[in-house]
Write a structure and sequence with these properties.
3 helices; 138 residues; globular; alpha+beta
């Protein structure tokens, strides 16, 4: 079963000594993954000495055009595959929205595997004008 909370969440709020850590519901796992994706995708490379490739490149380094979108899509997928072990079978696609042509959207689709089931998970990102990637549940 994947951990209900990320490592940092478990260190910050450890379980009570007399209580065992039980698997929570999938919604809580998805919320924890969402928080980690939000943090990870807004961390720039070399922001962590122990993992210099954690996060993404400075998004202002990307040029406009379809090639830049594909490069960012691949980078998001590789980062999530490497640093979010609770998700498997990860796919990242870019998504344009006719109602909002001024933002760039990506969809992250993966599977959460537990001892007794697999659960699909979908996250949507929006690249804001500030260069920050906002992540929401799909």
């Amino acid at each position: 079963m994947p951990h209900l909370r990320s490592l940092l969440e478990r260190l910050e709020f450890p379980p009570a000594p007399d209580r065992r850590s039980l698997p929570g519901d999938v919604g809580e796992v998805i919320d924890s993954i969402l928080r980690h994706l939000q943090s990870m995708l807004n961390t720039r490379h070399h922001g962590s000495e122990s993992a210099p490739d954690y996060g993404t490149s400075d998004l202002s380094d990307y040029y406009t055009g379809l090639e830049a979108i594909d490069t960012l899509r691949r980078e998001i997928r590789q980062t999530v595959e490497k640093y979010e072990p609770r998700l498997t079978n990860i796919q990242v696609s870019s998504a344009a929205r006719e109602d909002d042509p001024y933002h760039l959207y990506f969809e992250i689709v993966g599977t959460i595997v537990s001892e007794d089931r697999t659960t699909p998970a979908v996250f949507r990102t929006m690249l804001e004008g500030t260069g920050e990637l906002k992540v929401t549940r799909g």
